[in-house]
Amino acid sequence: xxxxxxxxxxxxxxxxxxxxxxxxxxxxxxxxxxxxxxxxxxxxxxxxxxxxxxxxxxxxxxxxxxxxxxxxxxxxxxxxxxxxxxxxxxxxxxxxxxxxxxxxxxxxxxxxxxxxxxxxxxxxxxxxxxxxxxxxxxxxxxxxxxxxxxxxxxxxxxxxxxxxxxxxxxxxxxxxxxxxxxxxxxxxxxxxxxxxxxxxxxxxxxxxxxxxxxxxxxxxxxxxxxxxx
Length: 229
Description:
Elements: H1 20-34, E1 42-43, H2 45-52, H3 56-68, E2 72-75, E3 79-82, H4 87-111, H5 115-133, H6 137-153, H7 158-170, H8 176-181, H9 185-189, H10 191-201, H11 204-225
Antiparallel strand pairs: 1-3, 2-3
C-alpha cells in the first residue's frame, strides 16, 4: 500500500446524533490504536466521512482532535497520516502503563469495591468479548478503553485517569487483526471479566498478577507480529 492510498475500514454508519464529533473521535482513536488506521497511509476527511455516512466537517474536526493528541499529523491539501511509533516508544508506553495501572487497581482490591459498582462494569466486559468474537476491532478497543478508564476512575484521581487515557491512546496494537483471524482474541478479552471477579473477591495479589499479564499481553500482540518500525 502506498502512502497516499485510501484504505476501506469497517466503520459504523453514525447518522445524525448528539455529540457526533465526540463519537467519531472515539471511533477513529480506537481505529488508530487497533491498527485499522495505519501509519504511512493518508486518510482524507471526505473518504472517512463517506464510510461513516456523515458530512466531512465532523470527521475533519475529529481528526484535528487526534492531531492535538499526537495520534495523527496533517498532510497539506491531502488529509491526515497516523503518527508512527518505534519499538522503543511502545515499550516505554507499556512500562508507564504498568507503573500506573497495576498499583492503582491493586489498591482498589485492597480497599474493596462494592459489588454493585463492579456490576456496572460487567456489561462492558461482555461487550469487549462480544466485539472480539465478531472481530470488530474498533468496537473492541473502544470498549476496552472505556472499561479500564472507568475502573481507574474508582480511585478518585482524575489526573491519573487522563494520564492513562493519553498513554493508551498513544499505544498501538497492530496484531489484533491477526489474532482475531486466528480466533485467539476472545481468551484475551475474557481477562476483563476475570479481573472483575478477582476484585469482587478482594484478591489483591491475583489482581496485580492479572494486570501485569494483561498489559504484557497487549504489548506482546504487537511484538509477536513484528509490524512496528
